[in-house]
Amino acid sequence: MVSEIALGSWLTYGVGVDDSSATACVNRAFDLGLNFFDTANIYGNGAAESFLGKALSGRVRSSYILATKLYFPMTDTDRGLSAPQVYKQIDASLARLRTDYVDLYQCHRYDPLTPLEETMDALTNVVRQGKARYIGFSEWNAEQIRATLDIPHIEKFVSSQPQYSILWRVPEIEVFPLCAANGIGQIVWSPLAQGVLTGKYLPGQPPPTDSRAASPQMNAFIRERLRSDHTLTAVQQLRPIAEAQGLTLAQLALAWVLRLPAVSSAIVGASRPSQLDDNAVVSGVKLDQETLDAIDRLILPLLRDLEGLA
User: CA end-to-end span of the chain, whole Å?
Assistant: First the structure.
C-alpha cells in the first residue's frame, strides 16, 4: 500500500537542494505518514539515489516503499533496457540506495532499440532474484503497453508513471483505460505542472527567487507553454475555485489528480518540509462534481488553445 502523496527527487535531491534541507524533507515525510519515495538512476547521475540511500539508511526497511528507474544514459555506453543494462543498473542502484531490493523497478522510457521480450525477461529475472518486488514503466504509450500483455511467463507490470495534471491530460485518452483493464495503477508525476499550479508564478512577472524556475539547476525542463502569460492567467483564475473548497491552488491540483481511482499516488517534489505539510493534507480530500466542472470550464479551452486537445 503506497501513500497517496509520494516524495520524488527529480532535479532536487543530490542536485538543486542541499542535503540538510533534503534530509529534513525526508524526515518530515515520515512524520506525515508518507511512505513512498521515487527516484531514478539518472537523477543527478546517481546523486539522488546516493542521497536517499544515506537519508533512509537508519530506517527500518519495511517502513518505506522505494522506487527507482533505468533507461537514460549513465555513461557514453550505458543506456537503454537491454538485459546487460538491466542487470548492471539494478546492482548499481541498489549499491547507491544501500538496500538489498527496491519495491518498484521502472523502465524510465520505452527502448525501441532492444527487443521487448529481452527487456521483460531481464526484469522478470530481477524480480525472481529478489532485487525488485515489482516492475513498472514511465511514459509508455498504449501500443507499447499492450505489447507486453501477451508475452508469456514473465512478471507483469503493476504501475505506470505518466505526466498528469490539470494542465496535461493526455494519459486519460488511452493509457488510463488500458492500464485499468489490466490491473496497472498510475503513479503520476508533475501533478503541480512543475510548480505552475501552485500559483506562485504570476503573469508578466519574473519567477520568485526561491522557485524552481529561478534555479539554473532545476528550471531546464519547465516548458515555455507552462510559463506563458496565457497559462499563468488561467491558473490564477483557479484560485477562487480552490478557496471555495478551503484549499490552496496546489492542494486543489493534487486533489484533482487523486480524484480518479486509477491514480494510486501523486509524486511531489519538496525543497522545504513546509511544502510537504501543505501537500499531505490533500490525501482523502474529495472534490464534488460542481468543483470539477468549474475547473474544466476554465481549463479545457486553454488546453484546446495550447495542445489541440478537446
Answer: 34
> Helix, strand or coil for residue 88?
helix
In a domain, 294, yes or no: no
Spatial separation of the C-alpha atoms in residues 161 and 247, rounded to whole Å: 26
In a domain, 292, yes or no: no
Q: What per-residue confidence (pLDDT) applies to 207?
A: 72
Instruction: Pick the catalytic residue from 13, 43, 64, 134.
Output: 43
Quick check: helix, strand or coil at residue 234?
helix
Residue 219 pLDDT exceeds 90: no
Residue for grid cell 539518472: 42
Nearest to 44 by CA among 71, 9, 14, 80: 14
pLDDT at position 213 is 52
Q: Which domain holds residue 149?
A: 5-198+260-284
Mean pLDDT over 214-235 rounds to 68
Whole-model pTM: value is: 0.92
Q: Cell 521487448 appears where?
A: 116
Burial letters 179-200, b for 16+ CB under 10 A, else e:
beeeebbbbbbbbbbbbbbbbb
- CA of 56: how far to CAs of 23, 27, 29, 82, 142, in Å? 9, 9, 11, 29, 35
Helices then strands, counting H and E runs in the chain, come out as 12, 8
Q: Is the pLDDT of residue 220 over 60?
A: no
Any catalytic annotation for residue 13? no
What integer is the mean pLDDT of 8-22? 92
Asked whether residue 42 is domain-assigned, the answer is: yes
Query: Residue 165 and residue 259: Cα distance in Å, rounded?
Result: 11
Decide if 8 contacts 39 (C-beta within 8 A): yes
Question: For cell 546523486, what's the residue?
Answer: 47
- DSSP letter for 166, please: T
SS (H, E, C) 167-195: CECHHHCCHHHHHHHCCCEEEEECCCCCC
Q: How many domains does the chain have?
A: 1
Find the CATH number of the domain harbouring 62: 3.20.20.100
**Would residue 90 count as lying in a domain?**
yes
